[in-house]
Amino acid sequence: MSKSFDVVVIGAGPGGYIAAIRAAQLGMNVACIDEWKNDKGGPAPGGTCTNVGCIPSKALLQSSEHYEQARLHFAEHGITARDVKMDVATMVGRKNEVVKQNNDGILYLFKKNKVTFFHGRGSFVKAVDGGYEIKVAGKTEETLVAKQVIVATGSSPRELPGAPFDEENILSNDGALRIPAVPKRLALIGSGVIGLEMGSVWRRVGAEVTVLEALPTFLGAVDEQVAREAKKAFDKQGLKIALGVKISEVKSGKKGVSIAYANAKGEAQKLDVDKVIVSIGRVPNTQGLNAEAVGLKLSDRGQVEVDELCRTNLPGVWAVGDVVRGPMLAHKAEEEGVAVAERMAGQHGHVNFNTIPWVIYTSPEIAWVGKTEQQLKAEGVKYKAGSFPFMANGRARALGDTTGFVKMLADAATDEILGVHIVGPMASELIAEAAVAMEFKASSEDIARICHAHPTLGESMKEAALAVDKRTLNF
After folding, report:
1. To pair with 8 at 20 to 30 A between CA atoms, which of 31, 198, 353, 446?
2. What is the CA radius of gyration of the chain?
């Protein structure tokens, strides 16, 4: 016998679980389906972000950062730390516990908000009077009927042609988070965000890391000045970065992985490593959704096609997050999930793609919101730029981390902030001020006139704003 709901959400990643909770808060009877399992076969909601992405990678980054600080920088503070060792099993175990806490937290939030959770794979069966029939394939099979459906099935890592993931030697983000011991030599194919973050983790704990990037530029989506500064820092750390390469063959064997490629000059090269992390993008999860059963329209790339309000071609069916157009970011998915739930309730959900922040959690961290200089130039927009280096910031000096700068771009005529770009300490936290300012269409003068606490890294934002008008006070 089928169970009826106002809304069924397929997928409990950041977009799905947030959409389910917001819809329930707005008075709807909501079910959420997710098939992710923990190592004991139990439910593990949270999607890629919680299980094999954002959350576990930050746990490993934090552990490896502590290790590097103890090994290389404690002496600067008068702290003697001899014979510092990294127990990889403990590091990975802590990461697993952080993931479990987040899984359990989502299940608690479902219970608190009266969202009915189904553990299994959700797929369309057919359209019925008043909605859609959804099948849940899990330990027991369930049939649900929903007036409205939100597809939030996320994405999966893209495989390198001819070199499928085995999660032993050729790793996706999943396998990269479960390496049981420090590899002596590690390669990253693609300088994607997850790859660079995982490369940072394993470099810090002793791996020799080489990045093979097909594009001729490093971090092409990032502001060029920021990308140059980041590469300079990565080079200094010992991260080997080869640009403009063309991979011809990847062979996995008992002794590791052999990679044949041509460098930017077209010269044949060979790299032998213990493991390789492939980070060349992600593909939407629509296989198994049975979209054809109800006529749900997919793009040539396998994405669910939606309009600006996240509506699909079917009445009452919506889609959010990585499975639709736009940046594959957890916080973008969350905003879309909230907006869709509110639109269902007759409200006016809001998602502004121009103020979605981006973060790369390397060391130094990289964060930005809005347009880059190269974008503004390409669009013919006249702008003013101001920047402030962390080496002139008192708090950064006290922290012992003065790499990088804050850069602000403002409209030449109106002074409205068009973009903010940060490379340096705590960039992931600092970018929030810029996102708020841009959402309220602030000018650089607004930020320059706001009192910032001293000494803080945040003062660098104020100084960058002052620099737009060429009146910095501390540089």
Report:
1. 353
2. 24
Task: Please compute, for residue 5, the number of CA atoms within 13 A of its CA located in the half-sphere on the CB side.
Answer: 28
Establish whether 172 is an annotated binding residue: no
3-state secondary structure the chain: CCEEEEEEEECCCHHHHHHHHHHHHCCCCEEEEECCECCCCCECCCHHHHHHCHHHHHHHHHHHHHHHHHHHHHHHHCCCCCCCCCCHHHHHHHHHHHHHHHHHHHHHHHHHCCCEEEECEEEEEEEECCEEEEEEECCCEEEEEEEEEEECCCEEECCECCECCCCCCEECHHHHCCCCCCCCEEEEECCCHHHHHHHHHHHHCCCEEEEEECCCCCCCCCCHHHHHHHHHHHHHHCCEEEECCEEEEEEEECCEEEEEEECCCCCEEEEEECEEEECCCEEECCCCCCHHHCCCCECCCCCECCCCCCECCCCCEEECHHHCCCCCCHHHHHHHHHHHHHHHCCCCCCCCHHHCCEEECCCCEEEEEECCHHHHHHHCCCEEEEEEEHHHCHHHHHHCCCCCEEEEEEECCCCEEEEEEEEECCHHHHHHHHHHHHHCCCEHHHHHHCCCCCCCCCHHHHHHHHHHCCCCCCC
279 among annotated binding-site residues:
no
Supply the pTM of this predicted model: 0.96
* 8 A C-beta contact, residue 225 and residue 366: no
Statement: residue 311 has pLDDT above 90? yes
Alpha-carbon distance of 475 to 466, in angstroms, equals: 11
The answer to the question of whether 266 is labelled as a binding residue is no
Q: How far is CA 406 from the centre of its chain?
A: 21
51-95 pLDDT tens trace? 999 999 999 999 999 999 999 999 999 999 999 999 999 999 999
Q: How confident is the model at residue 176 (pLDDT cuts 50, 70, 90)?
A: very high
Tokens linked to 439 = 């959402």
Q: What pLDDT, on the 0 to 100 scale, is given for residue 130?
A: 86
Residue 400 labeled ligand binder:
no
Catalytic residue among 66, 350, 452, 454: 454
Domains of the chain and CATH, by start = 3-156+283-351 (3.50.50.60), 170-280 (3.50.50.60), 355-468 (3.30.390.30)
Amino acid making up residue 251: K
In angstroms, the CA 20 to CA 11 distance is 10
454 included as an active-site residue: yes
